[in-house]
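Before relying on records like the one below, remember that each one covers exactly one chain. Contacts with other chains, cofactors or solvent are not represented anywhere in the record.
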Amino acid sequence: MLIYTVCGAGIGTSVLLKANVDKVLSRLEVEAEVRAVTVDHVVTGQIEAQVVIATQEVADLLTGVASEVIVVKNIFDLAELEEKLFVSVG
């Protein structure tokens, strides 16, 4: 499974979110590749991921994306990430 964590530039929020998603996936014992990418990468159709994780501000730009989009309120809240990922990939 491939998961994208997304932010505007692909170097800030998405990298922090990727690190936390990796932690949660490890706790859930789910194997997946997680990549931090830009919102442009996703909306221009260059998407391979089954799941895209983003904050609300970025998720609003992802309309029409074929992948499942998971919206997180707090990128540092591991419990929120775990709950949402468990439903999606668990």
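The chain has one domain: 2-89.
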